[in-house]
Amino acid sequence: MTTQRPETECYTTYIANLLLTRNKVGGQDVSAQSLRILDLCTGTGCISLLLYSLLSQAFRHISIHGVDISALAINLARKNLRLNVAKNNLPSSALDQVQFFQADVLRPGFVGSSVWKDGDLPDHKAEYNILISNPPYISPEEFTKSTSRSVRNWEPRSALVPCAENGMLDCKRGDEFYPGLLAAAVQARCQFVALEVADLEQGKRVVSMVQGSGKWKGVEIWRDWVDPRNPTESFVKVDNGGRVTVRGEGNGRVVVCWSVEGEVISTRRALE
Q1: Vertex 132, ends 129 and 138: CA angle to 5°?
Q2: Which residues lie across from 63 on neighbouring strands?
Q3: CA angle 186-187-189, nearest 5°?
Q4: pTM (two decimals)
Q5: Helix (H) or strand (E) segment spanning residue 244
Q6: b/e burial code for range 178-189 (CB count within 10 A of at least 16 → b)
Q7: pLDDT single digits (tens) 136-190
Q8: What is the DSSP letter of 149?
């Protein structure tokens, strides 16, 4: 399987385990219905491939679509898919059920539209159960100050920093992608959304976006390590004066939100 950060692997695995534990999406037996996952800013496809490896045996009708603006990243994702099938890390069904597309996820209305550069989606509805994303989220200042020389020299800057210094507050903070990702989730009628963040402070800002939109029933922040056997829980205040549940240990790592239908997947329901 391709390599990703252990923190990203942890929450991705946790989401898969929530799905397997509940064995439901939208209140129906998932083995009898389709499960559609949208992985935005997919990069080389690590999240998509990990989810497929964890879920494909339980979900007979699963589709995972990874999207990235980089043609190089999409080509590498497709290569990773073929390589993992060839090495028997994934079943051959992955070649049909996991697909990668080049598109600009920040372009309004991109989901299922003509801006998909590699052909149309398998169907025109472009509806998904789950949206997951590890977007560029490092601010230009933090990229210069905090990243290692090897990262600055060898990692594509566009995969880490959402935009150049242009005076916009969201760009200065590294927050530029989150409003567009949340809008895409609404457009795609997603029931459950997971957005990776740099730290707790950025997570709190994303929570404020979620709560301010009025589109979601619930929202939480997960830290680096979330253990269902020891569900450490706390609360933090956010900018809008409210508060949000924080689960796990370590740094703030991912903001998750869900609709009424998606509550069955959420940690809160899984822990009841």
Answers
A1: 160
A2: 36
A3: 60
A4: 0.83
A5: strand 243-247
A6: bebbbbbbebbb
A7: 865 555 555 555 444 444 455 554 555 644 444 445 557 888 998 999 999 899 9
A8: H
In this prediction, the residues of the chain whose per-residue pLDDT falls under 50 are 2, 25, 114-115, 117-124, 148-154, 159, 164-170, 270-272
Identify the residue whose tokens are 């979900």.
Answer: 59
C-alpha distances in angstroms, 129 versus 6, 63, 95, 218? 24, 10, 20, 16
77 HSE (CA, 13 A, CB side): 29
Spatial CA neighbour of 222 closest among 81, 50, 18: 18
Which secondary-structure segment (H or E) carries 146? helix 140-146
Query: In the chain, what is the greatest distance between 2 CA atoms, to the nearest angstrom?
Result: 52
Residue 208, both tokens: 């404020």
pLDDT for 262: 76
Residue 235's φ and ψ, nearest 5 degrees, are -135, 145
- Which one-letter amino acid corresponds to residue 53? S
